[in-house]
Amino acid sequence: MRVALAQINPTVGDIEGNSRLIRESIQKAGDSGAELVVFPELSVIGYPPKDLLLKPAVIRACRQAVEDLAKDCRGIAAIIGHPCPSDNPKGRMLYNAATLCYDGRPQHRRVKSLLPTYDVFDEHRYFEPGPDVQITPLNGLNLGISICEDLWNDRDVVDRQLYHDNPISALAQRGADMFINCAASPFTVGKHALRMRLMREAAKRHGLPVLYCNQVGGNDELVFDGCSCAVGADGELIAQAKDFEADLLVLDVPVGESGRLGEPGEPGEPGGPGEGVGAKPQARGGARKKMSGAQVGRIEVHSEGIASAYHALVLGLRDYCKKCGFKSVVLGLSGGIDSAVCCALAVAALGKENVCGVTMPSRFSSDGSVSDADLLAQNLGVDFHTVAIEPAHNAFEKMLGPIFEGTVPGVAEENIQARARGVLLMAISNKFGSMLVTTGNKSELAVGYCTLYGDMAGGLAVLSDVPKTLVYKLANWINDDPASPLRKAFGKPVIPKDTITKPPSAELRKDQTDQDSLPPYDVLDEIIERFVEQEQSAKRIVSETGFDAEMVLKMIRLIDLNEYKRKQAAPGLKITGRAFGFGRRMPIAQRYDYRRAIEADK
What we know:
The protein is of the alpha/beta class and 602 residues long. The chain has 2 domains: 2-255 and 295-302, Nitrilase/N-carbamoyl-D-aminoacid amidohydrolase, CATH 3.60.110.10; 306-599, HUPs (Rossmann fold), CATH 3.40.50.620. The protein has helices at 15-31, 56-70, 167-173, 191-206, 305-324, 337-350, 367-380, 390-404, 411-432, 442-447, 468-480, 485-490, 497-501, 521-533, 538-545, 549-561, 563-567, 595-599, and strands spanning 2-7, 36-38, 77-85, 94-102, 105-111, 136-138, 141-147, 178-183, 210-214, 216-219, 222-225, 229-231, 237-240, 247-252, 329-332, 355-359, 383-386, 435-438, 460-461. The strands form 4 sheets. A 6-stranded mixed sheet has the order 5-4-3-2-1-14, covered by helices on one side. It has a 6-stranded mixed sheet with strand order 6-7-8-9-12-13, covered by helices on one side. It has a 5-stranded parallel sheet with strand order 17-16-15-18-19, sandwiched between helices. α6 (337-350) crosses α11, α14 (521-533) crosses α16 (549-561) and α15 (538-545) packs antiparallel against α16 (549-561). The chain is globular and about 85 Å long. It starts with a strand and ends with a helix. Mean pLDDT is 91; it is low at 257-288.
């Protein structure tokens, strides 16, 4: 069977625009000779729709969209993801569904069985699980249609099975000839390798091919990498779409031990008269429709590691701006590594003509920081301005002098500088309609090494899920790797060498460095990964790393104390297994004592 996987980039809530993408893909898939085109999970409304699902008018519009799209399904079938009302008088009111459309109307609806409610997922808030797992007849074949999480309960791949049932095994038991998974699986570094393990294991265990169609694009904090693909019954990769961009992947799927398909509608098979598409036999075996530039069964090479993080951040920033209506961005350039990497990512996402950098030196700024910011702007070709904050800094100190009299200068005085910069950047943002990009990284956000209403001001925190050590790796990759798009575009390193090599500093007091207040970033980042991403206890971190217990406890305490800051931070792009955002729900007012577990053994 010739199948097309339509890896589209939907905008949440844009039912009309998403329907247009679906309609165009149906047409292109038909031109390629495909009998079936598969779309991602909830493709009509986009994922994640969140509380849009609580609006009855939205659900009605989605249902109407599916009925309208089905009219384009003549001579070709389409599996379209959408929300719909539940049939059950009890429980939640909606299903997360995928409907097979052909002969001009919706025919078979399948409902998601496993509803994730962890990390960034909250599907039990909206959906009722499917009442039963069923196969879907099409052209003499039994399609095993599942939706995203339904694939993620394999005992040999997943560390802990979260569900009692395995929909994939149930589909195989009911006679599926192939598995089709409609997905909206967000990107994290290294995640696609886990998806491939899931697909390969399902294919080999049941002796059936697995087709996987994933959403692509950025929606708020989440980035979807696409990476739609298919594996054969032996678990070997037979086709793979592009990563981080929309794509239509066309492939011929071998089914059965012979690798050949029977004729549609054979006696006694599902898909006989009234059930199948009614495609002519030659659409499967002999003559195909003339291709319209589509290459059947191609295998695209995907980026990995640091390269994948780069592409995810670029896509996330580009789509956040596009889908929120921003054409340009502004950001502060301190001469430091974080703002430099953010500026480079912004140029890659939006083009140099749509990026404005502003350096705002104070009495504590080094000449090197200003010159490094200037050189970065020149290398990238962005609009660049210098606005000294000394007049504002002096004015604030004078105004606060009577109130602060008799106190020792400290963090409050230092933060005046960051907040003055925030005011300037927000003024530029307001004046010209450019979104302010926040440049802080995950390490700083974790321990509160950032200023509310100062350097935390902005519309999107691009690096908020990028640890400081990874920021340095990104900078070196952008500068030196032959695969770096910016290295190719500019023909040279774009981030100044001194920006990468000098000790990091907020430059809010004389001779300040980050390590005055924090441990080395490789140590801090390991603590953050273990405590935040892996949920390890302080006791385990100390015992496994050998780090000083008092230092570990201090960093953990800082992470907890600064939850109030993160609740007020700009949304950030998620690229790790656990980001600071709506997937991590920690209380602000809490006093759990991590010291007790460590001291219990003393």
